[in-house]
Design a protein that fits this description.
alpha/beta; Rossmann fold; 2 domains; six-stranded parallel sheet; 9 helices; 15 strands
Length: 269
């Protein structure tokens, strides 16, 4: 039940993008008002996505075309989280990548060399044009000793025509061929949340996570120590909620229900 208290003030917000702010590039009612309330309140926030295809600049442009104004610095992708993880683990390393500009740009920016010759890592991300040749190369490099990393475990992605195979599906193919499972960086790994908190110098005890999926957004928020809010405007329905062995702190119909709560003393306990 929503409570009002000054013991755990909400000083920063993390929110998923697809299913919370937009649906197939159409803004969800209340999203623009919610973002404006965050900006006007001066609270720190990040928009999170498991999609590693696009750079933050690309995503800002796409959101602007949907009528949503999100600064480039307020977008955190699984590609950025992956690059940060690799930089922490093995600075100045090398990687063979399967993915798009969002991933390759992030790795370049942390000083990684992209190569198919004895790389430290094989890094699998999202792309709309998975190449059999590239997958074969990845399999052989992993067999040769390269460590296997994947940006996110999502098995499918949405499109106007229906589901598309995504990073998790291709990772399963490579795992079946090599016997090596990847380390997934994106949600539901709480590492994604921790890296986002570090990005905005926020603390888990004073941060709220908003998502539309129990099995990625809510669980990763809970495991990172955040208060996790579920909205029913995306992948999870009311009947789905009770099927999970864990619960969100609060459930709302959509982001519109949260606009008036930003910057108040709502604690979501």
């Amino acid at each position: 039940m929503l409570s009002v208290s000054d013991t755990k003030p909400v000083l920063s917000w993390l929110t998923d993008m697809d299913g919370v702010l937009v649906h197939e590039e159409r803004p969800i009612p209340g999203a623009a008002e919610f973002l404006e309330r965050l900006r006007s309140s001066g609270l720190r926030f990040l928009v999170l996505t498991n999609n590693s295809i696009f750079t933050p600049r690309d995503l800002r442009a796409r959101l602007l075309s949907s009528g949503l104004d999100v600064p480039e610095a307020s977008i955190w992708t699984s590609a950025l989280a992956t690059a940060q993880f690799l930089d922490d683990q093995r600075p100045g390393g090398s990687a063979y990548t399967i993915g798009e500009a969002g991933l390759t740009t992030a790795l370049h920016e942390v000083g990684y060399v992209l190569t198919g010759r004895n790389p430290d890592y094989v890094v699998l991300g999202e792309t709309r044009t998975y190449s059999f040749e590239a997958i074969t190369t990845a399999i052989r490099l992993i067999e040769g000793g390269a460590r296997f990393i994947a940006t996110n475990p999502d098995a499918t992605g949405p499109s106007p025509e229906g589901s598309l195979p995504a990073c998790g599906s291709v990772a399963a193919l490579i795992t079946r061929a090599t016997g090596k499972a990847p380390y997934f960086i994106g949600k539901p790994n709480p590492l994604m949340m921790r890296s986002a908190l570090n990005r905005i110098e926020a603390h888990s005890e004073s941060t709220v996570m908003i998502g539309d999926r129990m099995d990625t957004d809510v669980i990763s928020g809970l495991e990172a120590g955040l208060r996790s809010l579920l909205v029913l405007s995306g992948s999870t329905s009311t009947t789905d909620v009770e099927r999970f062995p864990y619960r969100a702190h609060q459930v709302f119909d959509s982001i519109a229900d949260l606009v008036d709560l930003v910057g108040t003393d709502a604690t979501f306990d």
